[in-house]
Amino acid sequence: MLSADYPLDIARDSALHFREAFYRKFHHERRTVRRRKHACSDGLRSKPFHEFFVSTIRKVSQHTLAVLASVAFFALVPLALYGSWVIPRAVSAADLGGPLNFIIIPLGGALLGLAVSVVAFLPLSLLAGRFGFRRCLRTVAFISFLLTAFVVVAAVCFSRTGGQETNWLPALVCSALALYLVGGFFVYLCCVAVFRRMFP
């Protein structure tokens, strides 16, 4: 025999079952939303750090290669000038005069290039990247071209005087030194530009 409270028991059990199912579903959705929020927040936190890390590695790499290129320029230019001045005389006299100079001169140029690149070229290139890298590169290229033309003219005029001490000698020396420094900076900027082009 069924009791009179049987419908009420069924209704009570159904209500309890529905409430438990509702709470279970609600807590499951709530946990899912929390997990998604945590995943999104972790992604947002890790993405800027990853981008900052990659950009830092790229900047350090491009400036390291630029410093090495400038050091090579500062070492090879005086070595080439010294070789072009000494080797013809050594061939005629059958004597190099000072073979140790072929080690001391590029070493001194490399140390000078390292110091100038770290102290001057690196800050200037960072400023150029902030205020317009292409415009600064074009400006340095134009200055290098003008100095090269002036050095050629000064060298020709000085050679015509027969090597005598004239006003062209200090002009030639000063313009050659200026071209030496500006050319090193131009090599630095060109290396940075090539690296930016290859790894944007």
Q: What's the end-to-end separation, in Å?
A: 85 Å
- The overall average pLDDT, rounded, is 78
Q: How many domains make up the 3D coordinates?
A: 1
Number of strands: 0
Show unreliable segments. Answer: 1-6
Derived structural class? mainly alpha
Sketch the topology as an H/E string, one letter per element.
Answer: HHHH
Q: How is the biggest beta sheet arranged?
A: none
> What percent strand?
under 5%
- Please work out how many helical segments DSSP would assign: 4
Task: Describe the global form.
Answer: elongated
Helix content range of the residues, please? Answer: over 70%
Radius of gyration: 37 Å
Task: Give the gist of this structure.
This protein is mostly helical and 200 residues long.
Topology:
Layout: H1 6-93, H2 101-131, H3 133-160, H4 168-198
Short key terms for the protein model shown above:
single chain; 89% helix
Task: Write structural notes for this entry.
It is a single chain. With 200 residues, the protein is an all-alpha fold. The chain has one domain (51-198). The protein is built from four helices and no strands. It has helices at residues 6-93, 101-131, 133-160, 168-198. Helix 2 (101-131) runs antiparallel to helix 3 and helix 2 packs across helix 4 (168-198). The chain is elongated and about 110 Å long. 17% of the residues are buried.
